[in-house]
Write a structure and sequence with these properties.
The chain is α/β, with parallel strands linked by helices. It has 2 domains: 225 residues, Spore Coat Polysaccharide Biosynthesis Protein SpsA, Chain A (Alpha-Beta Complex), CATH 3.90.550.10; 102 residues, no CATH class. The strands form 3 sheets. It has an 8-stranded mixed beta sheet with strand order 3-2-1-4-9-6-10-8, sandwiched between helices. Strands 5-11-7 form a 3-stranded mixed beta sheet. Helix 1 runs parallel beside helix 2, helix 8 crosses helix 10 and helix 9 runs antiparallel to helix 10.
């Protein structure tokens, strides 16, 4: 375990050796944050040249570059191992397929040093192929599928606008981890499972329940590779079904949503909140209208909302009443809309 760095960049990786090399080289060229830092790479059972990519750079790297292996499959387990591998009081999570702006680490470190509990910033695309016509990039509800984010040019407190950062561009004080706990390994993305990465939303729910706050920083920018395979309708359908499945699981654990809707208090029809059936009917009607008018973007968006609904049903079933966690905190305000679905 390292004991000298003040801030650590943590990267979980699985079979992306070439892109990981780009990420490490980009980090090496970034501006230093003003105090000692290090990079910890956790190899989550890669079968390519991941280890060689890291070890070939260690001797010439400007700071400590550490290679750790985690055999428990899953992003959550890998990130927890990364946190345990360093004693740095400030932690910044990135990914193995991003490029960071020159001032990325410096900006994150400054805000965390000022006392913010966690920070996040924009995630901009590096397109491997041209985005298709049916993908409406003007709407933020389509961004999650390809892991991009941009909340604008002004900083704000995440809790004030009920927004969340992405896990590939997230900084946090270690004291927050010590207070609310690690990422749940049963919710993180792992190879071959339908359950998608809900470890960050669930963790952020615990952070907010503890009364902690985070800052959105427009200058804390990373650029994320978007492979061509993520720009197909098949990929998007599977992603939205998985999103619905994952959300249904998370809602049982954290029934107070990030929109302050307490699912324990809303009417249900069988296993699902009643508003979900209402929204599904609206989406069917809107889909038919878009089909008749030739609006390909709106038709696809509505189809993905229905895929989300199907994933939710797949996880819950239709008739058995859900068993929500009774210990989760009450909402701080009232709301009764489909925003609970995060759409």
């Amino acid at each position: 375990m390292s004991g000298s760095a003040h801030i650590a960049v943590l990267i979980a990786t699985y079979n992306r050796a070439a892109l990981l090399g780009e990420t490490l080289d980009c980090l090496a060229a970034s501006r230093p944050p003003g105090f000692a830092w290090e990079v910890v790479v956790v190899d989550n059972n890669s079968t390519d040249g991941t280890r060689a990519v890291v070890e070939s750079r260690q001797a010439s790297y400007p700071v400590a570059l550490r290679y750790v292996r985690e055999t428990r499959q899953g992003r959550s387990a890998a990130l927890n191992t990364a946190m345990a591998a360093t004693t740095a009081p400030l932690l910044v999570f990135s990914d193995d397929d991003v490029r960071v702006d020159a001032g990325w680490l410096e900006t994150a470190a400054a805000a965390l040093s000022q006392g913010w509990n966690y920070v996040g910033g924009p995630v901009r695309p590096i397109w491997e192929a041209r985005p298709p016509r049916w993908l409406d990039l003007t709407r933020s509800d389509t961004w999650g599928t390809i892991a991009i984010l941009d909340y604008g040019a002004e900083p704000f407190v995440f809790e004030d606008r009920r927004r969340v950062p992405l896990g590939c561009n997230l900084g946090v004080r270690r004291s927050v981890i010590e207070r609310v706990g690690d990422f749940r390994v049963d919710l993180g993305r792992s190879n071959g499972k339908l359950l998608l990465g809900q470890e960050v939303p669930e963790w952020l729910a615990r952070v907010r329940a503890a009364g902690l706050r985070g800052l959105y920083i427009p200058g804390m920018v990373v650029h994320h590779h978007i492979p061509a395979r993520r720009l197909t309708k098949e990929y998007h359908r599977k992603w939205w079904i998985g999103k619905g499945y994952s959300r249904a699981t998370l809602d049982l654990i954290q029934p107070v949503t990030d929109q302050n809707i307490d699912l324990r208090r809303v009417p249900h029809v069988g296993a699902l909140p009643r508003f979900m059936f209402t929204d599904a009917v609206r989406d069917v009607v809107a889909y038919i209208r878009a089909l008749l008018t030739g609006n390909t973007e709106e038709r696809f968006r509505r189809a993905m909302r229905l895929a989300y609904f199907l994933g939710y049903v797949k996880a819950r079933g239709l008739w058995r009443p859900p068993s929500y966690d009774a210990t989760s905190g009450a909402p701080v305000g009232a709301a009764t809309s489909s925003a609970a679905a995060g759409l």
